[in-house]
Description:
The two termini are 41 Å apart. A hairpin with a 2-residue loop joins strand 1 and strand 2 (20-21). It is built from 14 helices and 17 strands. 40% of the residues lie in helices and 16% in strands. The relative contact order is 0.16. By secondary structure, it is of the alpha/beta class.
Amino acid sequence: MDVNEIRKQFPVLDQLVYGKPLVYLDNAATTQKPLCVIERERDYYLHENCNIHRGVHYLSQMATEAYEHARQTVARFINAPEAHEIVFTRGTTESLNLLATSLSTLNSQLSTKVLVTAMEHHSNLVPWQQMVQRQGGELLVAPMDDNGVLDLHAYEAQLKQGPQIVAMTHVSNTLGTVNPIKEMIRLAHQHGALVVVDGAQSMAHLPIDVQDLDCDFFVFSGHKMYAPMGIGGLYGKTELLEKMPPYQFGGEMVDTVSFEKTTFNKLPFKFEAGTPNVGAALGLETAIQFIESFDRQEVTKHEDALVAATIEGLSKIEGMRFIGEAPERSGLVSFIIDGIHPYDLGTIIDKMGVAVRTGHHCAEPVMTRFGIPGTVRASFAMYNTLEEVDVLVKAVNRAATMLR
């Protein structure tokens, strides 16, 4: 794995910010896009642009075939049994809203009690919260310890309270914690719950096998795995998707329509109302092929080395406090420095050419749990280097000195 060769696929990284080489460490928010992804989307608009599924002419047929091939690629990437179990959405947030809306419409009893974890992104918290509140139900929260590790004993105790749905993040976007989701899914199923896995932060870093996990639903965003923005997906087991009512209504998702009655299309189309983002779906397929062109174990080893080097370097700075120190973690480091607001620290680091994210990272309850306003988060991708980690550490040290 030659990181310097990989970086040639990402021209956005080769620029100056405030006169300094850009060090991009905001990958948990969105990864940069390789040339092959950009070119695939561009090629679609140059040569294939057309509305799909309903046209009999050449361009429509060609675009439809490419779009459905992209769906098959996603299914293969996560080992879904059938391509029709992949629903294209705008990303994780829309996928979760689809589930919260459709499941509650399917059966109001599913809105009675939902269990989430204490480390959820707002996208995997607020839709379920609103769902149970509409029905007068209850939201249960599995707690975590001071290291950002879930309390599995408390989790299992809450399962005994009978939640109908369990929604959990695979990898925390604020702490980097990798949750033991296979065991958590097994326990949830023992207690009769449906399981939704938020894979937004895991798709780019960890191999996903939905059959091995046995999750009922798995959701993800393309833009966090080198694909364009505005595309993502929802995997769901066939028997569940077939029972669920549509989330939106309009063109494509219908079978027959009259003023008296409408019947709905087969899977996955009944969940894909309107004209889809075909170019982005093809970009997503190309991003998957890009990821698969590397030895994933080598990529993981490289990213883990970046995390370890960051922790080692930052730990030498006076007043440093890491938020999230789970033994198993992936992709990011969150930290604060005593007496310095994260926003101030991030602003000065930016002037040194280093892009990190500051704030609560759409996970306010996590910050409340640790009694802080937010963190500085450095998050990594395969194109980051140990030299960039050195730049980050020096920038944080200098910024801290200036702010004390």
